[in-house]
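Bumping my old thread because nobody answered last time. Still need a sequence for this structure:
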């Protein structure tokens, strides 16, 4: 299974805080939002890729190397340097699929900045049983 994490937002609604901290790395009581997502990805033993913008590419790269050195996350830089130049979620999905060679794959696309209170393993099991994946 391939998982694509969308992390290319600029945090404009967070004002000064979002200018220096990616939304996925906002601290919570149990770590960051990204910690939660990556823990779920590890449970699935999936191939994981993360797409981000140019502003936060090095931040995510450093953070992943420090906090998840054994998890091979492919990090993509969509090249956007300002909110006005961002690709948007669909643009980042298309960019990533092409860059990763996933044209014939069905990646599970997840947000990096959202807490969800369900198990991805349970979700994937259900989706598989119900034939919700096309492969």
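Sorry it took so long. Here it is:
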């Amino acid at each position: 299974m391939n998982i694509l994490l969308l992390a290319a937002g600029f945090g404009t609604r967070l004002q000064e805080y979002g200018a220096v901290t990616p939304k996925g790395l906002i601290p919570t009581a149990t770590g960051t939002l990204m910690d939660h997502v990556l823990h779920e990805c590890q449970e699935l033993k999936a191939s994981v890729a993360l797409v981000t913008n140019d502003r936060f590419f090095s931040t995510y790269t450093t953070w992943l190397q420090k906090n998840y050195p054994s998890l091979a996350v492919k990090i993509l830089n969509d090249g956007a340097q300002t909110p006005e130049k961002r690709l948007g979620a669909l643009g980042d999905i298309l960019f990533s699929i092409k860059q990763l060679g996933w044209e014939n794959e069905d990646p599970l696309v997840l947000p990096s900045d959202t807490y969800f209170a369900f198990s991805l393993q349970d979700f994937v099991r259900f989706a598989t049983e119900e034939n919700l994946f096309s492969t």
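The mean pLDDT is 90. Let me know if any region looks off to you.
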